[in-house]
Design a protein that fits this description.
Residues 333-373 form the RING-type domain. The chain is 28% helix and 32% strand. With 385 residues, the chain is an alpha+beta fold. It folds into two domains: 3-25 and 265-299 and 320-384, Zinc/RING finger domain, C3HC4 (zinc finger) (Herpes Virus-1, 2-Layer Sandwich); 50-234, Jelly Rolls (Sandwich), CATH 2.60.120.380. It has a four-stranded antiparallel beta sheet, with no helix packed on it. A four-stranded antiparallel beta sheet has the order 2-14-4-12, with no helix packed on it.
Length: 385
């Protein structure tokens, strides 16, 4: 008679192991997804390899964190770039003047020009030489987005060009005079040059660096881009230790959240509940759990009728029913059959065992309710009065 609970516990062990495995997999999957999204956003976003536009006497600021970036590499095969490294943000107080001239063939009803990097406070003056009949239908532009302006209000990439509104192509010579604001580089901590084609700066952990990328005043126009733009390749080499640490932090945070929500239990989380059972009407929780567990308590015995021994049949039936009622009393634990039921499981609410047996179930590998086979989070004790 005592084999039934043991067989039931063994049959539910695989189910409990499967539920715990699914819970562990879900706990690991979320931080992996978060880590992948963070890695992709940094690798191909803010700290992704980029192709930056510059210009004569350009001074471009880049803020880099050594927590996520280990090295910065600058490549340019045609001009001598200089990379300055600062521990604090430098001031934008210096000024330089330079002039460039471009020979442009502008098709009808189109715009043509080139891009420059300009800092806040810079000024631009444009002058072009073309045929006299076409000058009245030419417009000079300095474009950032949808706005045309000559006074630079913020650091950004600006398009300088000419819009041809004539019905025929024109040939002109565009002269641009720029009064550019540049950063003060006299207090730089490190200086690197790309005279050999590239330069690499190693960042010390865990500092934040301000990098200033400057171009020479006389840029070789023959080595410009096909549209008259001058670019430089900048690569950020990531620090993989930081990404592994971010992954571990995500796992810890999600584990703590699941623990606070009841996904993991410990011995101190088992609360005690006192229920008054002196009345004939029992508590709703106890009565409902008893009704649910009732099918497990009853065993039907088929007794063949014997018309010759009616009295023996009645006596045997009485003895069988008495022993069955004593053994399968609804107030006894379904595991040990010695102690009364004095606890219930959370979240299913079934009351089928005594508190020591319930503790053994929770502390074991198969943390499932012996009634409904749901995963058990906690055990609460019932004090009968």
């Amino acid at each position: 008679m005592h084999r039934t609970p043991l067989m039931m516990s063994l049959s539910t062990s695989n189910h409990g192991y499967s539920q715990r495995w699914e819970q562990t997999l879900a706990c690991m999957l979320v931080p992996l997804v978060v880590w992948f999204c963070v890695l992709a956003s940094i690798q191909y976003g803010y700290y992704g390899n980029s192709r930056l536009v510059l210009g004569p006497s350009s001074s471009r600021l880049m803020k880099t964190s050594s927590i996520l970036v280990e090295k910065v590499e600058v490549r340019n095969d045609h001009n001598n770039l200089v990379l300055y490294a600062f521990n604090q943000k430098p001031e934008l107080i210096s000024q330089t003047n330079w002039t460039t001239s471009r020979f442009l063939v502008v098709p009808r009803n189109t715009r043509k020009g080139f891009s420059l990097w300009l800092n806040k406070g810079s000024r631009i003056r444009m002058r072009w030489e073309a045929q006299a009949s076409s000058r009245n239908q030419l417009e000079g532009m300095v474009i950032k987005g949808n706005e045309a302006e000559y006074m630079i209000e913020e650091d950004d990439r600006y398009q300088i060009g000419v819009l041809n509104m004539n019905d025929k192509n024109i040939v002109l010579n565009l002269n641009v005079n720029v009064s550019a604001k540049i950063y003060d580089t006299t207090k730089a901590n490190n200086i690197y040059s790309s005279i050999n084609g590239s330069c690499t700066f190693s960042l010390l952990f865990p500092n934040t660096y301000y990098l200033i990328l400057t171009a020479p005043k006389n840029v070789d126009d023959d080595n410009d881009d096909s549209d008259g733009e001058w670019f430089v390749e900048v690569s950020f080499i990531t620090r993989m230790v930081a990404y592994i640490a971010i992954l571990g932090l995500c796992i810890i945070v999600i584990f703590m959240i699941l623990r606070c929500l009841g996904g993991y239990d410990n011995d101190n989380d088992n609360s005690n509940v006192t229920i008054d059972t002196s009345n004939n009407n029992n508590n709703v929780l106890v009565s409902s759990s008893q009704e649910i567990t009732e099918p497990m308590m009853h065993h039907h015995h088929d007794v063949k009728p014997n018309p010759k021994n009616d009295e023996e049949e009645e006596s045997s039936e009485d003895g069988s029913s008495c022993s069955s009622e004593e053994l399968y009393d609804e107030k006894l634990c379904v595991i040990c059959y010695d102690e009364q039921r004095n606890c219930f499981f959370v979240p299913c609410g079934h009351s089928a065992t005594c508190f020591p047996c319930a503790k053994r179930i929770v502390d074991g590998e198969s943390k499932v309710c012996p009634v409904c086979r749901r995963l058990i989070h906690k055990v609460r004790r019932l004090f009968m009065s």
